[in-house]
Design goal:
Blueprint (H helix, E strand, L loop, with lengths): L1 E4 L7 E4 L6 E2 L4 E2 L1 H7 L14 E2 L13 H14 L1
Antiparallel strand pairs: 1-2, 3-4, 3-5
Protein name: UPAR/Ly6 domain-containing protein
Length: about 80
Amino acid sequence: RQCFSCDASTCSKTLACEGKEDYSTLKGCVSELICSASNSFISQLPGGKISCCKGNFCNSAVTASAGPQLVAVVMISMALFS
């Protein structure tokens, strides 16, 4: 399983997903638990809509910008649910 990952300037870096990371978001690989949690907890926060997809490179290499609050929420959620 692989997906695209973003850094400060581009979203074209490839990333090998690990363990139960079967899904991808705009920024990288996540587990199904993160995607299902995003539909309840995270979606209630401002700017908290997270789209998940399943499959190699399904998250495209499109450059996009997420607000710092959203990035922080995703990182905290990943730490809590992984």
